Structure prediction request, 217 residues.
Amino acid sequence: MQHKTAHGPRTAGRVLHGARWYDLFGTVISFGRVRALREKLIELAAPAPGEHVLDVGCGTGTLAIAVKRRVGAGVVHGIDASPEMVQVAKQKSAKDGSDIDFRVALIEAIPFPDASFDLVTSSLMLHHLPDDLKAKGLREIRRVLKPGGRFMAMDFAAQSHSPFGCGRPLGHLRSILGHARGERMVDALTPLLRAAGFSAVEAIPTRHKNFAFIRAR
Ligand SMILES: C[S@@+](CC[C@H](N)C(=O)[O-])C[C@H]1O[C@@H](n2cnc3c(N)ncnc32)[C@H](O)[C@@H]1O
Prediction:
């Protein structure tokens, strides 16, 4: 199935349009955990001053704005398929005074040359993609990473195709309430990451049992 807005690009990923309420909804539905998870992602990704970073599926830009504070004079870009999300991200970074390039663009066609980034991040994004698009998106991430560059993702711990599966509203609720089930994200992503050209794939233990972190180089 293809998703599209009047002015957004066509993708088989699940695009979110309710940007105005997204941050509030995310905070409420996760009982405030999403903020802590993004902070943990940044700690694990360890963005360093001067680095070039891309956040894919950046949503309203919260993670990219936090990363920019870490990289200082480094360069941060955020891409999302949703024009509404990108518009809110631009407004938030302008208010924050952070110079970040937010663009409407797709993970399956990242608009940057090969070997552009030291770090690519993705938060709660990969579960929005069907498997073939995950594979394509991960190949694109490997392409735009410099040799030795790192990819750091955070997402739901389990993938499921049930009506309660991750990526569906009831799946989010189920996962947050502690009933995540199905294939472990790490198990599902590891072969895709290896096929995309990543050699070191690491699952990172976390006390948040319904969420998983994965790092790859
Ligand atoms: C659950 S949101 C996560 C947003 C943000 N990373 C966060 O942590 O709040 C997933 C995002 O992926 C975006 N998305 C879906 N398919 C995409 C694609 N093919 N390329 C880029 N972004 C996509 C959606 O529009 C949505 O903003």
